[in-house]
Structures are given as structure tokens and as C-alpha cells.
Amino acid sequence: MMIKIVMFDVGGVLVDYDQTWHNKELAEISGMSREYVDKVIDKYMTGIEIGKVRINEFESAVAHELGIRKSQLRWADFFAAHSRLNEDVYELLKEIHEEMSTAIFSNIDKARYKIVRQILPFTYIDHAFTSCYLGLRKPDPKAYMAIAKRLNLKPNEIVFIDNDMQNVLGARTAGLNAIRFKSRRELDKSLSKFMGYA
After folding, report:
1. CA separation for the pair 28, 197 (Å, rounded)
2. Do 7 and 134 contact (CB within 8 A), yes or no?
3. DSSP of 43-110, one letter per residue?
């Protein structure tokens, strides 16, 4: 098996961000339970993440269900204020880039992707795939197969790294080599099994 590209998730891997942080704030603002907020966000998030729903429509629907003003949602602003580059993982990406191609694949909407472009230096990223432009999202195996086709690679020539086990399993179902991200140290060990790296 010859690995030709390493593909990273963004949120929770290259960028330190967790949607639960925002959901917690929205629960406090709305007075709704965390479970209810999670359910509402999940209900509408797929639409914006695959580019079928505009951000304005998403914000209106979520604000309505939570009983808050749209301005209180702060969808892109909250993400911008709380997202930080994961320096350890980005350094690893740079090291890998010296040996082979690198890519990203993120479930993300267009508004938040603009922010990612400001946080994450793309100098060492050869290919960028996002659910909002691909029209497919993780963990759907079709999303990974579509990416492999666009890269003109066999699925088993790709290593994919994600912090969400469901996304890892979806990638494996599609034939990719997938690693669940927990820490840089563990990631180094896992990568070495695939490519003699680290």
C-alpha cells in the first residue's frame, strides 16, 4: 500500500473548536436545555453544510426555534471568536507536506469557511474539500469516494484524520485509511503504522 496524500479534518483537528461551546452559550441565552439546543442545531446544520440552505435562512430558523433574536445567534462571529489554530497539528501537516501532498476535508458552511481561510494558513495544503462546496458531508462514504475521484486516487492511497469516530468509520467504509485524532503524540504513532512516518 502506497500512501499518496494525508487529509485532515479542520474543526477539532487543525483548528481548535467544538460546536458544543456555542450550543452551551445558546442554551444560556435562550433558557432552553442543552439537549434541545443540540437537537435544533443538528436539525438545520446539514442544510447549510451541504450548501442547500443559505446562512440567513438557517439563522432565522434556529433563532425562531430557540425563541431568540437572530442577532443573538452570532453563528459566524462566535466561531471566529473561539477558533484557534492547533499549532502542534499544523506543524505535523507542514512536516508531512515535505514528503507528500496534504488536504483538508471539513463539514462546514460558507460563512465559517471564510473564517477558516483566515485562521488556517493554506501554504502547505494542496487540496481543500468542504461539504458546502462538495454537496456531501461526513460521515457519508459517498463524500470520501467523491474526494478520491477528484484526487484521481484509490481510496486506500489516502490517510484521513478526524476527531469524530463516526467520520472515521465513514471514511473506512469508503476504503480510506482513517485515524481518530486524540492528540499529536497518538497521531504520530498511528501515522507511523501507515507510512513509516514520525
Report:
1. 45
2. no
3. HHHHHHHTTSS-HHHHHHHHHHHHTS-HHHH-HHHHHHHH-EE-HHHHHHHHHHHTTSEEEEEE---H
What's the CA gap between 41 and 66, in Å, rounded? 10
The domain made up of 5-16+83-195 has a fold known as Rossmann fold (3.40.50)
Q: Any idea where the domains of the chain sit in the sequence?
A: 5-16+83-195, 19-81
- Torsional class of 41: left (φ above 0), alpha (ψ -120 to 50), beta (otherwise): alpha
Instruction: Please tell me whether residue 8 adopts helix, strand or coil conformation.
Output: strand
Helix (H) or strand (E) holding 152: none
- Residue 11: pLDDT band (50, 70, 90) is very high
pTM (2 decimals)? 0.94
DSSP 8-state class, residue 196: S
User: Is residue 177 a contact partner of residue 5, using CB atoms and an 8 Å limit?
Assistant: no
- The H or E element that residue 31 is part of is none
Record the cell numbers describing residue 116, joined without a space.
477558516
For 120-162, the pLDDT digits (tens) are 999 999 999 999 999 999 999 999 999 999 999 999 999 999 9
Per-residue pLDDT tens digits for 85-94: 999 999 999 9
